[in-house]
Amino acid sequence: MAARRRVRNLGGLNAGNEEDGCTIEQFNQMHPPTFDGHGDPTLAEDWIQDIEEILHILNCTDKQKVLYSAFKLTGEAKRWWISERTIREADGRGVVSWLHFKQIFFDHFFPRSIRDAWAKDFADLVQGTMTVHQYAARYIELSRFALYLIPDEEKKTRTFEEGLNNHIYERVVALQIQNFLELVDKTTIVERGLKRSVELQEQRKGPTPLGFPSNENQGPWKRMKLVNNSGQRQV
Fold first, then answer.
1. Where are the annotated segments for Disordered (predicted)?
2. CA distances from 167 to 6, 42, 131 (A)
3. Residue 194 phi/psi, 5° resolution?
4. Against a cut of 0.85, is the pTM above it?
């Protein structure tokens, strides 16, 4: 994302800040994204990831992470944080840690019920009518909500393989591929080959020549001339 590109171009901006953290000026120079609390729940996750990358490269302290991130909340998200902060101050709980900020942020904008539902979607995912490319994209998209189901590369690969359509699965299972990206590449090649085979078969059939029978019930062994009801032959 844009934030990641900005991080790579940072250079020596955070030099000498290892103990003092970062300043709000340095944070704003990175043009951190805002978040208004609307839209797909994954937007909340994307926002945290982009913000966290900037905070990390700037060496911000835990307190600064919370203060600076909250500063980039707008609209509904800003109202939520003001309410949350007011309640905590009234209870005497003070400023939250960055870890706790992320927890209450996700509980509100990306609730556990949604994450659990998408984890189940991942567990039930099969290729179905999707192409291999579409299946792989959906697999990757949902897998982040169920990492406990694919703890290593081999399990990630096997789970993807088991969800393939049978006519593709049967052609790759014997290869015993252990790498996910390699499996996606091989299955894409297999799918392309199968598609080409079908296209060639269709081409071989071709159009029926004019004046010749179009199916086996009208083959050359059948009489080309039929007798009509009056006994006269028809050509």
1. 200-235
2. 45, 34, 13
3. -65, -40
4. no
